[in-house]
């Protein structure tokens, strides 16, 4: 029996001028991917939530075979076992639980999904993410294991190390974390104090956190879940500091889960959000690990203690760059979820009258409510589509890097840094706007929006604090501006610094041309980047050192990075909407949405746009 849909919602949906399936397929990468995304949770929920005979299961199983047999390696006995085991315990909301209980409930669900992902033989990363998100809606205690721990092995480990360690991670023989941040340092990596001193006699590293500020602090899963860490420490060999390197460090006994000798580990306590993630602290008291435990894809320590430096000392940063791409993409989807909740609510919530005596209207009829929500719908599309465009750039650059060509690494770092800051700040303000658009009910945990905010707003801090990330991107942009000032050749992504001109044909009283919109954002970015460069040079002309002049110009440098990201986003949105092969009605609507996004941005940053004419 179909669910009854609220008549106001049904009416609103019936007025669509386009076929939503076109958009859904586009957003999820096509009908087959969408079908898989929908089939998996539906299958599992059906299996879990209704008493089923083996016959039912076989029918469903056969039904699956016609759709998704290419990846479901189901074995009925295991499915039955998982169903019984989980059904008996069932789902419990964590909203009313203590932090301990909420962590345990999330851990129970995460372990269940880990088992199911293996049983279903789900290989596709996105499918794994969708599957997990259904069952562990909040912070997943295994998040670091799924993302940074495995990525670090894959990107920093030698082939032998990958062969040895990755299967352990894939089968959950170990559960991992990525331990870099310390109590005293998160941003300034060159300030990390944890040491890894090479003992040439025993061919071992001695790991030590010599001060309280060197204690590892914040890593997810460190509090209780993880029994191994990829740990970043200052390598010291033959008396020389060789900079930050990554190490495979056992933390807890694989059977008893008790901390190993020399290890003091625990949870850092309650946080603003992310309650079911056990972020922890770690102190190492001269813990020994074999030489083979240093991840040696790029840099090495030979048996005699000789340090072989990497071709590029920034390669150790690759796991962070990779995860920034995850954050860039997830930010758009988080805003998409929040604005979906708020828009549906606005279709069914009747409050106040527009015409006195005309009866209470759907709040979606208020222009102010439309402005609050439609701009966020546009922003969610813009961020999701720009993330896809950035990922395409990343994939092509990364494949070159894997062949040893590192020329795109600076561009990649700048793009991921600026887009991670831009998307997470836009997502944070957008989700909060959606919450407030729902009035009192938006403040209920049951609305789902508060947790989206408190969990995801941490993305403005982790993986590189946003201001710092903007300044990182500004290093690259400023270098490009200096090169442009000298007439030198620029990377493809920043050639607009030399070519952008303001030749807008549109006037405000006509329907604005999309190419003019891209040109306006390009010109605004070029102008802000040039202004930041001028301020830096003015600081130098005043006799300041390079670093003092950098600090003197840093507010404008942050603005330059954000203007660059805004341009990249508007261009990606318009170019992808035009080129996506939609039918006319859908394309017309999406281009209207793109205009709304771009014009709203011009209003929000009207100072920049007025200044550049
Ligand atoms: C939303 C997702 C949902 C899914 C699941 C959620 C689960 C999430 C749980 C949270 C996980 C969080 C994990 C973490 O937070 S891990 C720790 C992250 N920490 C950081 O990001 C530290 C940030 N700081 C830095 O990266 C560096 O300190 C900084 C870059 C700021 C400074 O570097 P440095 O001290 O070396 O100094 P410079 O600025 O001079 O840089 C030197 C040159 O190196 C270049 N560089 C720096 N970083 C990179 C990089 N990543 N890739 C490439 N190149 C890099 C830099 O540009 C300089 O080069 P130039 O001199 O040529 O400019
Ligand atoms: C929920 C959550 C999960 C996390 N998970 C992990 C994890 O799994 N593993 C891990 O290793 N770490 C993790 N972290 C730590 C995270 O990476 C750091 O918090 C982050 O890198 C910021 O560093 P910090 O906390 O030292 O902030 P700080 O750098 O001290 O920032 C404080 C202020 O100083 C400013 N500032 C700092 N440097 C500069 C500069 N050069 N120029 C201008 N301004 C500057 C910043 O802009 C900011 O306003 C997590 C953090 C959170 C919140």
UniProtKB/TrEMBL annotation:
Subcellular localization: Peroxisome
Q: Indicate the residues that form the catalytic site.
A: 463
Question: What Pfam family does this protein match (any one)?
Answer: Acyl-CoA_ox_N
Single GO biological process annotation from the record: fatty acid beta-oxidation using acyl-CoA oxidase
What this protein needs as a cofactor is: FAD
Superkingdom of the source?
Eukaryota
Q: Which residues form the Acyl-CoA oxidase C-terminal domain?
A: 513-612
Per the record, the pathway is: Lipid metabolism; peroxisomal fatty acid beta-oxidation
Q: Name one GO cellular component term.
A: peroxisome
Acyl-CoA oxidase C-alpha1 domain span: 317-477
Transmembrane feature ranges = none
Q: Which residues form the Acyl-coenzyme A oxidase N-terminal domain?
A: 95-173
Q: Which InterPro entries match?
A: ACOX_C_alpha1 (IPR055060), Acyl-CoA_ox_N (IPR029320), Acyl-CoA_Oxase/DH_mid-dom_sf (IPR046373), Acyl-CoA_oxidase (IPR012258), Acyl-CoA_oxidase_C (IPR002655), AcylCo_DH-like_C (IPR036250), AcylCoA_DH/ox_N_sf (IPR037069), AcylCoA_DH/oxidase_NM_dom_sf (IPR009100)
GO terms, molecular function: acyl-CoA oxidase activity; FAD binding; fatty acid binding
Which residues does FAD bind? 181, 220
User: What keywords is this UniProt entry annotated with?
Assistant: FAD, Fatty acid metabolism, Flavoprotein, Lipid metabolism, Oxidoreductase, Peroxisome
Q: Identify its protein family.
A: Belongs to the acyl-CoA oxidase family.
- Name this polypeptide is given: Acyl-coenzyme A oxidase
Q: Which organism is it from?
A: Elysia marginata
């Amino acid at each position: 029996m179909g669910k009854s849909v609220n008549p106001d919602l049904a009416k609103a949906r019936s007025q669509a001028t386009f076929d939503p399936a076109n958009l859904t397929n586009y957003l999820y990468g096509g009908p087959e991917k969408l079908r898989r995304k929908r089939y998996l949770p539906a299958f599992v929920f059906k299996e879990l939530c209704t008493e089923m005979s083996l016959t039912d299961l076989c029918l469903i199983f056969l039904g699956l075979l016609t759709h998704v047999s290419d990846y479901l390696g189901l074995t009925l006995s295991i499915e039955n076992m998982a169903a019984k085991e989980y059904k008996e315990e069932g789902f419990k909301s964590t909203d009313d639980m203590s932090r301990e209980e909420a962590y345990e409930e999330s851990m129970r669900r995460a372990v269940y999904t880990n088992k199911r992902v293996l049983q279903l033989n789900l290989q596709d990363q996105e499918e794994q993410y969708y599957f997990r998100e259904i069952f562990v809606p909040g912070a997943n205690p295994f998040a670091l294991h799924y993302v940074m721990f495995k990525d670090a092995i894959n990107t920093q480990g030698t082939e032998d190390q990958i062969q040895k360690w990755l299967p352990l991670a894939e089968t959950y023989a170990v559960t991992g974390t990525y331990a870099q941040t310390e109590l005293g340092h998160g941003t300034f990596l060159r300030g990390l104090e944890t040491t890894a001193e090479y003992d040439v006699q025993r061919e071992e590293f001695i790991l030590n956190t010599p001060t309280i500020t060197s204690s590892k602090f914040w890593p997810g899963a460190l509090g209780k879940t993880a029994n191994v860490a990829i740990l970043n420490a200052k390598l010291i060999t033959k008396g020389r500091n060789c900079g930050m390197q990554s190490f495979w460090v056992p933390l807890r006994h694989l059977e008893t889960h008790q901390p190993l000798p020399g290890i003091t580990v625990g949870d850092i306590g309650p946080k603003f959000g992310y309650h079911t993630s056990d972020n922890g602290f770690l102190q190492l008291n001269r813990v020994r690990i074999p030489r083979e435990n240093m991840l040696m894809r790029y840099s090495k320590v030979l048996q005699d203690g000789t340090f072989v430096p990497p071709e590029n000392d920034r390669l150790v940063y690759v796991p962070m760059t990779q995860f920034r791409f995850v954050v860039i993409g997830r930010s758009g989807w988080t805003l998409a979820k929040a604005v979906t909740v708020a828009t549906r609510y606005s279709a069914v919530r009747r409050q106040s009258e527009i015409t006195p005596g005309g009866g209470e209207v759907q709040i979606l009829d208020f222009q102010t409510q439309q402005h609050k929500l439609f701009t966020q719908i546009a922003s969610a599309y813009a961020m999701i589509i720009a993330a896809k465009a950035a990922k395409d750039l990343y994939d092509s650059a990364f494949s070159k890097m894997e062949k040893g060509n590192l020329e795109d690494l600076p561009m990649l770092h700048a793009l991921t840094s600026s887009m991670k800051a831009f998307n997470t700040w836009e997502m944070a303000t957008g989700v909060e706007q959606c919450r407030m658009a729902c009035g009192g009910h938006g403040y209920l945990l049951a609305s789902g929006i508060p947790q989206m905010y408190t969990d995801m707003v941490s993305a403005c801090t982790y993986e590189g604090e946003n201001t710092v990330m903007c300044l990182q991107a500004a290093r690259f942009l400023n270098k490009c501006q200096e090169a442009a000032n000298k007439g030198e050749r620029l990377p493809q992504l920043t050639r607009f610094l030399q070519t952008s001109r303001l030749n807008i044909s549109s006037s405000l009283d006509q329907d604005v041309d999309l190419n003019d919109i891209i040109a306006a954002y390009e010109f605004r970015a070029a102008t802000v980047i040039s202004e930041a460069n001028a301020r830096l040079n003015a600081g130098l002309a005043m006799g300041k050192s390079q670093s003092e002049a950098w600090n003197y110009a840093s507010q404008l440098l942050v603005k330059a990075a954000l203007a660059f990201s805004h341009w990249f986003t508007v261009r990606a949105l318009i170019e992808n909407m035009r080129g996506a092969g939609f039918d006319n009605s859908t394309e017309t609507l999406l281009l209207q949405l793109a205009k709304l996004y771009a014009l709203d941005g011009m209003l929000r940053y009207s100072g920049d746009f007025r200044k550049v004419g």
